[in-house]
Structures are given as structure tokens and as C-alpha cells.
Amino acid sequence: MMEPRRHGGFTLIELMVTLTILALLASVAVPITRITATRSREAELQRSLAQIRSALDQYKVAADAGHISKSIDDSGYPASLFVLAEGVVDAKDPAGERLYFLRRVPRDPMCACPELRNEETWGVRSYASSADDPQEGRDVFDVYSRSPSAGLDSRPYRDW
């Protein structure tokens, strides 16, 4: 007696179950990917803020030590973020060597404005303004992100 010939392949139900499982896995993977990308940008924001703030503090120390010329009513902080990378002439060096505080000003990773230069992506606070209402002025005492968004911990990026 001859057995009927079996054709290899999948049934419609097997294909539907497989597609359902794939769709479920994709719906879980997309949010995880977004959270990972946001977490990475937040870590970059923290590094950039720390780097710029450290450079501002180093500039202030150099100004207070007499390496940077300033007037009596100056705070000792740079006039712009660009100065940190451009460098300033060392007032104590007879050869006129320059002091550099940053290789380049990092870009705010939360800024979605490609037309802006790196130093323009940051909000700056002058020494004379309050922390609650940061305003630009004659110098740069601190920096903050201009992004209106909040981080994964619900704190606005502006307050970091």
C-alpha cells in the first residue's frame, strides 16, 4: 500500500503565530532602544557640563593668580565660552604663550539646532545673575542646557 505524499512547509496558523511573536518582540525592542539612546545623550550632557564647568573654574583660578589680565571690577570669569578654546595670553609669561582651557567647546547633546556653533548651543549664566533666573551678562559663570525637555529622572535638562 502506498502512503500519501507529505509536502514540507508551514501551515497558515504556524505562520500567524510566528508573525505575532515577532511583532511582540519588536514592540518591546523599540522603546528599549529609545531609552538607551536617551540615556547615552544624558551621559554625554553630564560629561560636557562637567568639562565646561571645570574649564570655567580653571580660568577663574588662572585669573586670580594673575595669569589673565583683568580689570578691578571683572569677576575673573571668561567673557564667552569661545575664549576657553581660543585661549588667552599668559600675562606672567614673557614669551606671551597662550593658556588653553578646552580643546574645543563641546556641543549640547540635547540641542537639535545644527545651524548653531557649539558654544551657541549652551545657555550661559553670568556671575551677577541668580541661579533661579540665569541671565547672560559680561562673563560666563555657569552653563546649562537650553533644551525644554526633561530627563529620564523627570528633572528638566536646564537644571542639570
UniProtKB/TrEMBL annotation:
GO (cellular component) term, any one: type II protein secretion system complex
One GO term (biological process): protein secretion by the type II secretion system
Bilayer-spanning residue ranges: 12-32
Keywords: Membrane, Methylation, Transmembrane, Transmembrane helix
InterPro entries, per the entry: Bac_GSPG_pilin, N_methyl_site, Pilin-like
UniProt-annotated stretches for the region Disordered: 127-160
Protein's name in the database: Type II secretion system protein G
Organism annotation: Pararobbsia alpina
